[in-house]
Prior knowledge:
Helix content is 33%, strand content 22%. The protein is α/β, with parallel strands linked by helices and 280 residues long. The chain has a 9-stranded mixed β-sheet, with helices on both faces. The radius of gyration is 17 Å and the shape is globular.
Amino acid sequence: MTTLETRSLYHCFGGIQGYYQHPSTIIGLPMRFSVYQPPQTEQQRVPVLFFLAGLTCTEETFMIKAGAQRYAAELGLMLVTMDTSPRQTGIPGETDAWDFGAGAGFYLDATAEPWARHYRMESYVTQELRNIIVERFPADPNRIGIFGHSMGGHGALTLALRYPELFRSVSAFAPICAPMRCPWGQKAFSHYLGENQQNWQQYDTTALLQAGHRVPDLLIDQGFNDQFLTTQLFPEALEQACGDAGQPLTLRYHQGYDHSYYFISTFVGEHLKYHREQLG
Length: 280
């Protein structure tokens, strides 16, 4: 069984906020994650919601900034979030840029060297971390949802589309909807996956929808004042792809809101209620 180090625990809205570290066999290095256990876990297993954070974030960012624990305690939802990449791999240039390498794993399994050995966030989330949560925490394995922000929104959408047997609900805040078309995605994919763009399609939400992947429902919130709206996110491409595919989509634009956690914290309660309804 995986050795799990408890780094810290905090009482929060009647539940427990915990931060953990373990030696990851998939990543090949120590990985950190955090879990909020609502008070209902004292009596029963509860539905679980994985949150994938954005560029530069860690396993702490969402838990500290989003204000989600209040809603999770009311709804009986366990919250799980993880670091956004491996750390201290020794790969040259890993920390040179804020939008690539450390803190920017893009929730994919790299196939190009030197990234392929450690940058395997897709398998980490869907296999190793999921198994830890189900085996070591009072989580209901049949009621797991996923959501995320920006790079993590991209991750949530692609993983939900590719692993419908694992994730029964999905939503996102300001996701990178068409990474093959934007500078962030092109930079990450070319380094992690190589130059053959056919290999990129499995990690592009619009391409996955065009290829026939579906989820039962999809909720997206996007701020009109998001500084990355027109250069990196392309929600209009997602809207077009969903329309063409017949994929149910609720895409909500919000005047005045930007890309920050002020935006996320405003609507996170609605997302948790949405997932609670979807997960039953």
